[in-house]
Amino acid sequence: MERKSFTNSFVEVDLGDLRNNIRVLKNFLSEGVKQMAVVKADAYGHGAVKVARAIEEQVDWFAVNDVDEGLELREAGINNPVLVFGVPTDNTAPAYPDHNLTATISSNQHFDLLRQGTKYHLNFDTGMGRLGLYRDEITKTQNNISTYNNLTCTGIYSHFATADDPGSAKAEKQLKLFTSIRNRFDSSLLTHMGNTGGTAFYPASHFDMVRNGIGIYGYPPGSTPVEGLKPAIRWQSELVQIKQIREGETVSYGARWRSPEDGYIGVVPVGYEEGVPRVLSGQLEIAVEDSLYPVVGTVTMNYIMIFLGSSHQFEVGQPVEVLGGSALTADHWASRCNTIPYEIVSGISRRVPRRYV
Prior knowledge:
Layout: E1 10-13, H1 15-26, E2 34-38, H2 40-44, H3 48-55, E3 61-64, H4 67-75, E4 82-84, H5 95-98, E5 101-105, E6 119-124, H6 138-147, E7 152-158, H7 169-182, E8 190-192, H8 196-201, E9 209-212, E10 233-238, E11 241-245, E12 250-251, E13 257-258, E14 263-268, E15 285-288, E16 291-296, E17 304-309, E18 319-323, H9 330-336, H10 341-346, E19 354-356
Parallel strand pairs: 1-19, 2-3, 2-9, 3-4, 4-5, 5-6, 6-7, 7-8
Antiparallel strand pairs: 1-10, 10-18, 11-14, 12-13, 14-17, 15-16, 16-17
């Protein structure tokens, strides 16, 4: 029996917005180009199983970071092909054929790790500087494909470093290099390179399939907007206490904020444990009845405080929007703490329940 949650904070995910975003991204693609939905990091904080079930008929593949994430999808009855980006190990190798997960070979050492019957994609590093084979390993890789004929190579891919920039010379250089590598391998291999930025800004990177991540959740990959995307997440909570404060009195750790006048402080039960970055102290507003109120004082582990002004207009239990809706979006949060919306949405703790509409 599932234990009841007594939390007074929850994240609402609009599945209709997710489906809309997939349609928006599909409009960039030529007929026949497949979509791989990236649902690693619990679908960027949106809930991998619920998201996958909602979009499984719209997309062709799913991508995850590790085997555990792939098993979560399989145990939930998701049957689409699943690519695991992460590095295979002796420990995880049996899971690929046992659960029909597609492995990634990003080093020639991986051939010897994988078990008979495993399907895999080759990952070439064309400038990301993370995982991947290099161009000068092509011959060795081709020899291993032949030698390890108990494994099946079904795809080849690379990863952009700067595709969020529509005019990136590095992205064009990577694409040119990957194309030259791709031409050295069997033409039947499923080929993919474009992420959300590649989908929207680099049509030559579409190949057979694109891998969309942040765009599915409603955000552009960088500062250039992608028209039609809708953020699918809203974080809601409530006022758990309302306190009078006098002019000059301070709020929170460090006593860094002083009230400019007599008024009221509202306490909201979310903090950096739940996913409100502490660096946003003094830079955040949240919405109460569609009006924004400033978060004052230092963000604490489990609470933030907002200044409600000089009139007592709300009661304990008043709903508030922490993120999305009438409040600031993950884009706004990201810009204020010098990060990206990926980190904001995936950083919302799993302790905050997800509700789906």
